[in-house]
Amino acid sequence: MTYLLMSLPFLAAAAAVLLVVRRRLSVPVPAGLGLALGVLLVMTAVFDNLMIGAGLVAYGEEHRLGAAIGLAPVEDFTYPVAAVLLLPALWHLLGGSVARMRPEGER
Prior knowledge:
single chain; mainly alpha; 3 helices; 57% helix; elongated
């Protein structure tokens, strides 16, 4: 089994939760989602390469697709994608709002 096949259920679950939230709560996909995804992908590329280069993490070649960004296998980038899909959806499901984060007098 490849790392990609192992991570696909998590990616699919995150996408499913986002779709449920969009339909149930009529919540639009935030415009900042693309920006957050871009930032997380860049950070993943930088820090995964540092960790792999330092020998902190290693990947079995038999489980990789073969494509990589630097030393980081492309499969590693499914986790930030899943996080960007899942975390805002969970925030809305649990009743979170930006207004609740503001101090009482600043509404």
